[in-house]
Amino acid sequence: MADAAQDIDAKGSALDTAKDLFAGAVGGVAQVLIGQPFDIVKVRLQTSTAYSSALNAATSIYAQEGPLAFYKGTLTPLLGIGACVSIQFGAFGWARRYFEAANAALPNGGGSSSKDLSYGQYYAAGAFAGVANSVISGPIEHVRIRLQTQPHGAGRLYAGPWDCVRKLSAHEGVLRGLYRGEAVTIWREAQAYGVWFLTFEYLMNADAARNRLERKEVPSYKVAFYGGLAGEALWLGSYPFDVVKSKMQTDGFGKDMKYKSMRDCFAQTWRAEGMRGFWKGIGPTLLRAMPVSAGTFAVVEATMRAIS
Q1: Do the beta carbons of residue 158 and residue 147 sit within 8 Å?
Q2: Neighbours of 147 (CB within 10 A)
Q3: Best exposed site among 124, 156, 194, 214 by fewest CB in 10 Å?
C-alpha cells in the first residue's frame, strides 16, 4: 500500500511539473513579445554613453536603424526565454512541493495547521528556480546582448544567433566564451527570482485571505497587477548584478578585454561611475517590468487554470 501511494504521488508530482513547464513556456513567449523593445533600449543604455536618456536611445534607434531594430536578436530569446520561463516555473513548482511535503512531515505541521510555505521558503524556492534557469539563460542572454549591441548595416559582426554562438565559442571555448559572465548571472538569477516569486506569492496569498477566496478565484486583472508589482521588485532587488553582467557580456576578447572577472567589473564600475553606474538604464527597465511581468504571470496563471 505504501509503495502504491508513493507511486501515485510520484506520478502526480511529475504531472504537476509537466503542467508548470508548459504554462511557463507559454508565459515565456508572451514575455519576449511584450518586453523585447524595452530590453534593447535598456542594454544600449547600460553599455554605451552615446545616449542621454531612454527616450533619446529609443528615438535614435528608430531614426538610424528603423522600427525592426527594436526586435533585433528576437529569435534567440523567443526560443530560449520560452525555455527559461518554463524552467523557472517548473523548478519553482518542484521546490514548492518539496517544501510543502517537508512542512507536512513536521510534528503538528511545524506549529502550523497546514503545509503552507513560509515566505523564507518561497524566496528559497524562487532562488532555486533562478539558479536552475541560469544554466541556459546565461548563454542565451549573452547572444542576445551581442546581437543587440552590434553595429548596424555593413559593420555587423554576426549574421545571426547561430553565427554568434559559433564565434563566441571560438574565442576562448564554450565556458569562457559563450558562458562569459555566468558567475554574476547565477547571483542575479538567484536574487531576482527569489524576490519575484516571493512578492507574487505574498500578494496573491494576502488577497485570497483578505477576501476569503481560493487562489484560483483571484480575478485575472489582479493576477496581472500583482505580477507587475513582482516584476518591479525583481529589478529593484537585482539590477546592479544585471549591469555588471551586461558589461561583461559586451566586453572584448583577448587584448581588448576590459574586465578580468565579476569582481573586477564591480570595482571598475564603482571607480569610474560610483553608485550611479550600477543603476544606469533602471528607468526603462522598470517601465518594461510592469507589463512584461504582468503578462507573464497572467498568461501562466490562466494556462494553469485551463489545464488543471
Answers
A1: yes
A2: 23
A3: 214
Angle at CA of residue 97, ends 92 and 100, nearest 5°: 125
Tell me: pLDDT of 151 over 50: yes
| Angle at alpha carbon of residue 197, lines to 195 and 203, rounded to 5° | 100
- CB-based burial label for 178 (10 Å; 0-12, 13-18, 19+): buried
Express each pLDDT in 220-240 by its tens digit: 999 999 999 999 999 999 999
d(CA 140, CA 234): 19
Mean pLDDT of 176-189: 94
pTM of the prediction?
0.82
Pick from 161-165, 180-184, 191-195, 233-237: least confident = 161-165
Q: What is the pLDDT of residue 76?
A: 66
CA 197/CA 59 separation, integer angstroms: 34
Neighbour count for residue 264 (Cβ, 10 Å)? 13
